[in-house]
Amino acid sequence: MEKKEQAQVLVEAMPYIEKYRNKILVIKYGGNAMLNEELKSEVMRDLVLLHMVGIRVVLVHGGGPEISDTLKRLNIPTRFVNGLRYTDQETAGVVQMVLAGKVNKSLVNQLGLGGAKAVGICGLDGQLLVCEKQDEALGFVGKIVAVHAQVITDLLDAGYIPVISTVGGDGEGNIYNLNADTAAAAIAGALSAESLILMTDIKGLLANKEDEKSLIKKVYVSDIQSLVKQGVISGGMIPKVDCCKEAIRRGVSRVFITDGRVPHSILIELLSDEGSGTMFVGG
User: Fold this and answer.
1) Domains (ranges, CATH) in the chain?
2) Does residue 137 have a pLDDT over 70?
3) What is the pLDDT of residues 168-209, one digit of tens each?
4) Which residues are catalytically annotated?
5) How far apart, in Å, are the Cα atoms of 254 and each of 111, 179, 267?
6) What global pTM score does this model have?
7) In angstroms, rounded to a whole number, what is the distance separating the alpha carbons of residues 13 and 6?
8) What distances in angstroms separate CA 263 from CA 183, 229, 232, one per listed residue?
9) Which residue(s) pair with 26 in the sheet?
10) DSSP class of residue 116?
11) C-alpha to C-alpha distance for 231 and 30, rounded to whole angstroms
């Protein structure tokens, strides 16, 4: 890139940086978007950049593939009910070990190597995510009933990037496996975040699932029901879009579904005119 083009990129980013300065940005990162180590390092560097220009970054992560791999190595069978992982108490313990331990601390370490102060917590810390059983048929898969976000705001005020693994608990000492999109939406709402970004392994919401050029750039919440009826929103996209709608209902200004496989997709989404995925807004 020529120096003139570099300068133009910075000029274009300036108003967006100003818009997000001192605002809270929640990013959900997990699943297949985390499997490429080189790409993961780039994502962490992008978060450090956002942090350094004054954006209050909160990272919420999952780690389904890591959980599946660990269960396999421990010879613990994996069972799915309607597409969701059945979680008995033994599996919940593995989820806690993998997410709050291995995955969380790896992300914290990469952020630190990039030059940012980061602290890893999970939904058990400060009773951040209080849960109950979502469905008896799923075992210890949690439904979030309360978010106590003070621990997050304390870390943000102290200049840290909070890195949150999606493990919750109840008042009886039970550990729950949580859907990362759902947890991120609840956290973003509790923080009155400016934006929530759901990083996934698809480009965004497509008008034609077979054509990535049919990306829908902007969706109003009032249009969601119609898009479901048309079949544009279907299958696994339905719960993801429900999380977008719930976050906006809770007060988040805008929610993005963006492709975590694309280098610098967060920066493109937030700091450019073009954007890279689908933006959901109220109205």
Assistant:
1) 3-281 (3.40.1160.10)
2) yes
3) 999 999 999 999 999 999 999 999 999 999 998 888 999 988
4) 28, 31, 64, 181, 240
5) 25, 20, 15
6) 0.93
7) 11
8) 25, 33, 26
9) 58, 196
10) -
11) 26
